[in-house]
Automatic annotation (TrEMBL):
It comes from Actinomadura physcomitrii. It comes from the Bacteria. Residues 103-123 are annotated as: Disordered. Residues 103-113 have a biased composition (Basic and acidic residues). This is Uncharacterized protein.
Amino acid sequence: MRFRDRFGIRRHRGTTVTKLDREATAADIEALISFARDRRGVEFYIEPETFATDTTAVAVAHDGEWTRRRVGSPKVIGKVARDLGVPAYDVQIVGYPPRMRAWNERNRDRRIDPGTPGQAVRP
């Protein structure tokens, strides 16, 4: 089955792809879109590509709830943000919003341990 580049992930990526991480997929972008549509006051924070991780975006809602997904390129999430009417910021310039840290603190006991499916991590 051929991959359909619906969001322009491959077109905007350029010639390099990180070696240790998987590539962004349409499902990653759709998860961010769904998060933004289901919550109020969502903003995107674009995180740069690193040696080990593809470019990612963190979607943060008005209450600080957040999710992070691979996006392949800042241009991809920029287009998604424009289409949704959602602001997108470079996290290296503006940093993360304080409400994100506050949400993490309020929900510390609800975090899931990735090594144990369905088990909450206790502080």
